[in-house]
Amino acid sequence: MAFKRWNKTPSKSPPQYTWSQDEMKIIGWCLNKNIGVGISPDWKDELNRWQIDISINGKIHTDPNRYGDETVYNKVNEYYKYYYEKHNK
Length: 89
Known about the structure:
This protein has helices at about 20-30, 70-85; strands at about 35-40, 50-55, 60. It is α+β, with helices and mostly antiparallel strands. The protein has a three-stranded antiparallel β-sheet with strand order 1-2-3. β1 (about 35-40) and β2 (about 50-55) form a beta hairpin. The longest helix is centred in the C-terminal third of the chain and has 16 residues, at about 70-85.
């Protein structure tokens, strides 16, 4: 009996980022209000591009732009800060 060898699926490790205390405060507030921002690899594009998914009360919205390793977390912080300032008055 012969076994077919499957090709290894492509993988992508997320870039490393260290969150500051102020960023963690904003992120924690957003997560408590069911607002989450995450990144996922864009498999249709080059392997060094990321897409951003925003989850608000269970509805997922995807940013139409794609970001590189250097800029993706800056944009994630921008989204968290936007929702924090919009809803925390």
